[in-house]
Amino acid sequence: MPFTLGQMFGGWGKKGTGKKTPRARDISSETSLSPSRKKLGLNSATARPHLEVSSDLSRAQKAIKGESDLAWELITAPHISEKATMLGESKYIFKVSNKATKGTLRRAIEERYKVDVESLNILIMPAKKRRRGNVVGLKSGFKKAIVALKTGQTISEF
Question: What is the CATH number of the domain that holds 88?
């Protein structure tokens, strides 16, 4: 009868003590290369998949054309607070994604609500310690944006 985890699962031995099975990429991956990579003379060590990197600017341009849902990704929710109601009619506060920048957020708000943004301030709210009994936890921080619209424009969601 096993009494410890080491006895039950065979223990955690040192590296190299067990038999090594050859990995699929160690055997011969010349057959797994595509014909175009073989023409270029790439072997398995240099053949890596091409990763396409998309920038936020190109995604924002697509959002203006209506091809992307960048506005729905960046704007999380309206931030309703005492300060938000004191600001008045022309300023609105939103909780936004942590990856949001001023440029992409401006385009996203203009595309989603069909308004003109006059100014945009972004604030990063820090995490706060919260205590429940003897356990100390962390209330996660967030990013919020204060948006000022041009005179005469309103957002209907508020």
Answer: 3.30.70.330
Q: State the residue range of the domain holding 138.
A: 79-149
Helix (H) or strand (E) segment spanning residue 118: strand 117-125
d(CA 30, CA 42): 9
- Answer whether residue 49 is part of any domain: no
When pLDDT is averaged across residues 8-20 and rounded to a whole number, the result is 58
Output the average pLDDT for the chain. 76
- pTM comes to 0.55
76 Cβ partners below 8 Å, 6+ apart? Answer: 94, 95, 96, 97, 142
Give the total number of structural domains in the chain.
Answer: 1
3-state secondary structure of 134: coil
